[in-house]
């Protein structure tokens, strides 16, 4: 009887779900070297494409047709939001979330066919552009066949039911269990499928903070063994992930600091605080993606105009002047001033005439490609001014070549002086091509949100 009672207790324990894992905490890793970045990333500009909303048709073919304009804009790393079929069970809205993946090995028929996608990748590569896919490795749609073929891959509650990601209201997806044998092999096969069959160049990894770092370390190593210069971008800000797994992480702290400065809640030095945290915690040679908008920010937090107001222009410039990897969300070059619906068709209306933002981005992307001082990892330091709360002055340098920016990050007129011996000498205005001679002491008289960028 005692043995029987123990057996009953044992079997009952098997029906109780394992406790939800603790979310992985950031581990300072500044004493370690970073994985680094592929060479093509260090001078590249990421452009995020929301295929559903990019055109009136919402098709791959429309993006392919627009590649000449994107090439002229100067972007060369094309990140596509998830392109896979979307689950129908518990779907949000009419069309659902791109991040509720029903089949990792197929393309969403809403966007076109596999051949349409292959034509896009081929055309992008012919123009010297790279293609990065959005990889959703933390969860799947509840009607993804994996949930029945491999139920052991998933977390279950004490009733044996699949569960959404822990601590979220993402009811249209269910959570993987990263301790499950075979799950890593499956995910590696899916990542390698898109590289081997279509030649994609990298992955932006959704909810990268949800997967354990050792899982990422092994998974990305499997992919790099096949394609050594593949790019991995983490939607996370965990220092330890850039030791072996990721090349670049989201600059969330920096992004939020820019919003706070633009809204007058903090002075310009809040940007330094965010950068100091990055340097203190991340491994040597790590990098951040620097952005003023994205699909999440636009749809949920607000457009760049809602968050940055009239400061959207200088912060766009600053995103290219700071050390990191700059990113543009589709429509920013056209002055996109509305939130795009996440679960429905809501196409961007492209203006008949170019928006001033397009010309600004063309200058910035060209500088990023051609000037070694703006490449990821080139030396950067903030220059002191007599009004550090309002003016952000930044100097980048590589191989004796320099770029300097003076930006008024407030809605008021500012008069200030900047002093640094490195400023003395001839420069060229990056936006007008006008020659400029500076002394070591530079008096600044800047209108609200005015910026100046000089090269040498």
Structural account:
- This protein has 456 residues and is of the alpha/beta class.
- It folds into two domains: 353 residues, Glycosidases (TIM Barrel); 65 residues, Immunoglobulin-like (Sandwich), CATH 2.60.40.
- Helices cover 32% and strands 19% of the residues.
- The protein is built from 16 helices and 18 strands.
Descriptive keywords:
alpha/beta; TIM Barrel; Immunoglobulin-like; 2 domains; 6-stranded antiparallel beta sheet; 16 helices; disordered N terminus
Overall mean pLDDT stands at: 95
Strand content: 15-25%
- Taking pLDDT < 50 over at least 5 consecutive residues as the criterion, the unreliable ranges are 1-17
CATH class category name of the largest domain: Alpha Beta
Shape: globular
Short structural summary:
The protein is α/β, with parallel strands linked by helices and 456 residues long. The chain is built from 16 helices and 18 strands.
